[in-house]
Specification:
mainly alpha, elongated, 3 helices, single chain, 95 residues, 63% helix
């Protein structure tokens, strides 16, 4: 049996993460928000439109949203890189 270092409280209530997974805490928080939002939208679709999503659709919506956030973050990084002026390194010659 594989024991996960993540407890359900970290998933739902954003409780403090164990030390082993703190390096991925930002992506974990993002995934947590995407998952909760997707489940909320699925719930609303069920309540108001009487339409239940299958598991494959839920996984696809979560994965697509995570990729979209990744693209936005990548584009933001690329814009910052392009705006940052390049400086020449000083070279010292021996006299």
């Amino acid at each position: 049996m594989v024991v996960s270092p993540i407890h359900w409280k970290q998933c739902v209530f954003a409780a403090k993460s164990p030390r082993q997974v703190q390096c991925v805490e930002n992506i974990w928080c993002l995934l947590e928000g995407i998952t909760l939002w997707t489940l909320w939208i699925e719930r609303n679709d069920l309540v108001f439109n009487n339409e239940r999503w299958n598991v494959v659709k839920i996984h696809k919506v979560i994965w697509d949203a995570l990729l979209d956030y990744g693209r936005v973050a990548w584009n933001r990084c690329m814009k910052l890189i392009k705006k940052t002026p390049r400086t020449k390194k000083k070279t010292y010659s021996k006299v």
